[in-house]
Amino acid sequence: MAEVINRVLGSPSPTAPQGSVATVGAIRTTLRKQRLQAIALRILSIVLFIAAWQTFSAVPWAIEIPSPWDALRAALQLDPEIFLRDIALSTYRVALGFVLAAAVGIPLGICIGYSVFIRDLVFPSVELFRPIPPIAWIPLAILFFPKIEWMIVFLTFYGAFFPIVYNTVAGVSNIRSTYIRAGKSLGASEWTLFWHVVLPAALPTIFTGLYIAIGVAWLMVVAGEMIANKGGIGAMTWQAYQTTRYPRIFVGMATIGVVGYLSSLVVRLISRAVVRWEQQ
Amino acid sequence: MLSRSGLSIREVSKTYMSRQGWTHAVERCSLDIPDHGFSVLVGPSGCGKTTLLNIIAGFDALSEGEVRLDGRVIAAPGSPLHPGPDRLVVFQHGGLFPWMTVIENVCYGPVVQQKMQRAEALEAARRLLARVGLSGIEQAYPGDISSGMRRRVEIIRALISPPKILLMDEPFRALDALTKSVMHEFLLRLYDAEPCTIFFITHDLLEAIYLADVVSVMTTRPGRIKKIVRINIPRPRSHKVFSSDYFLHLKDEITAEVHSEAVKAFEAGERELA
After folding, report:
1. CB atoms < 10 A from the CB of B91, how many?
2. ipTM of the assembly?
């Protein structure tokens, strides 16, 4: 017991307080202190960033860089209805592309990872596509899709697809053989083995893929929207540039940052709820 | 000669192709484990102990010979592999499923084999865990409990619906000395209460003598059974036997056998490198 307390308190004191109530209280206080400190550091990080931005904008560059306050003012001047609609539209495009990529990518990755036959049949072509950066698909996607909306969703889908497939393949093919053997030995048939052993063992890696994919999906939606100019935060940012309202460019960028962060957070929360056994 | 019940390993050889050419992992290995017997196999590292266990478990194919369990052939050259719940394995590096809680792990076998309803299996698992003092961790994930507890849960998982033979592949290898001795007591108490047929692999000679009815010594690769030593220490056994003359005599005898094999293995390794 004393050893545990010392580890938590970080002090090798041999005279750690005895008695469970007092010690639990002491541990709680220490944990709370550490937590508060962590939160304070995170707030400080944001404050320092804004201060750096402020300083940067105060330097007389060739063009005038908007300060954080200019950006804030520009944000307040936006029509909230149009602004929110742009956010919703971009989020919708990301969600659609991402979900489609997961719906196709995870089963495909499982098949490639599980069956040597399918791996040899499919993987070489997948490998050929991988070095082509998703942005290089924009011209072809514009020509191919009759509707510009489909083009944007295709780009988000395509960007999210590869991280999902690759991580799923890695997750399925790197399962410790002991788990497969244990499953077979305990009496699982081929099919139950897949659901009870292969899939759960691969889940943490699959979620790593999803986490990377949501970031790439945002990258691609912004690129697509800037080209398409049919609504969304990317288009808003691009229009701000075209109409020389520079503070608004910063509003667009900051919005992409925040919304992108929030969607990564959603993926992480889902991951934590599903992969319950991998906490701490 | 051929015993009808228990495990019978007859002239088993295993050869496989590797980068160095054909490797003879196990050669003409014969061993009998009677029903309810506790048989321990010792030998230098890399002598083919685990290969033999994997053949019995149905994870690996054999090249020659046959393995029978209660008279039925479970492994023969060319026959398909069929691992199954009649031969459960406790794995060297742990085989609990990290995504299932302790109780889900313990219930898994009987439920997936449809031997028990889920509720029935949960009840049986709870009773068993309580009996070995592990009630408090039913809902914990294997990643959240100590390595000694994980080993105990894995053994319980294998015994909830008793297999015909329990195969233990150096199960206590990674444990510290203290936890290891706790595990020995745990395993011996389970065995004393309900003797099951156990095939146990280790290179810890003291562990082998303390646990076994019979200790078999395997030669260096290609692995053959070199010597079979009966351990006539009455059960239930306690730590006191470690200092008895008989125990020390057995220890010397088996150490000499294993040591000469280890030296051979070492010299063979040096030749390979030269």
Report:
1. 23
2. 0.90
Which of B59, B84, B91 minimises the CB distance to A187?
Answer: B84
CB proximity B95 to A under 8 Å: yes
**Chain B residue with the nearest C-alpha to that of A175:** B97
CB neighbour burial string for B168-191, b if at least 16 within 10 angstroms, e if fewer: bbbbbeebeeebbbbbbebbbebb
* A179 vs B97: CA distance, rounded Å: 7
- A160 shares its domain with A114: yes
User: Which residue range(s) make up the domain with B123?
Assistant: 94-162
pLDDT below 50 — which residues of chain A? Answer: 1-18, 280
For the whole prediction, is pTM greater than 0.95? no
pLDDT tens sequence across B115-140: 999 999 999 999 999 988 898 999 99
Reported confidence tier of residue B265, pLDDT bands at 50, 70, 90? confident
Pick from B58, B84, B91: which is nearest to A178 by CB?
B91
Say how many CB pairs under 8 Å bridge A and B.
65
CA A248, chain centre distance (Å): 25
Q: Are residues A75 and A193 in the same domain?
A: yes
Task: Choose among B69, B101, B100, B98: nearest CA to B82.
Answer: B69
On whether any CB of chain A is under 8 Å from the CB of B99, the answer is yes
- CA B155, B156, B158, B163 torsion-angle sign: positive
3-class SS at B62?
coil
Q: What is the pLDDT of residue A1?
A: 42
Kindly determine whether residue B89 and residue A188, on different chains, have CB atoms separated by under 8 Å: no
**A178 CA: distance to closest CA in chain B (Å):** 6
Domain limit, last residue, from B109, B133, B162: B162
Residues B31 and B9 occupy one common structural domain: yes
Q: What is the CATH number of the domain that holds A175?
A: 1.10.3720.10
Does some domain include residue B51? yes
Q: Are residues A46 and A96 in the same domain?
A: no
What is the arithmetic mean of pLDDT over B24-33? 91
Question: Does the distance separating the beta carbons of B113 and A192 come in below 8 Å?
Answer: no
Using the predicted structure, report yes or no on whether residue B232 has a pLDDT greater than 70: yes
Provide the mean pLDDT of chain A: 89
| Alpha carbon distances (Å) from B221 to B56, B122, B149 | 18, 44, 34
pLDDT in tens, A46-59: 999 999 999 999 99
Question: Given this model, what pLDDT does residue A184 score?
Answer: 94
Secondary-structure percent of chain A, ordered helix, strand, coil, rounded to 5:
85, 0, 15
Half-sphere exposure of A65 (CA within 13 A, CB side): 13
- Determine the residue of chain A that is closest to B92 in CA distance: A178
What domain range includes position A121?
68-278
Task: Say how many domains are in chain B.
Answer: 2
Residues B171 and B250 in one domain: yes
Q: Is residue A186 within 8 Å of B108, Cβ to Cβ?
A: yes
B112 pLDDT exceeds 70? yes
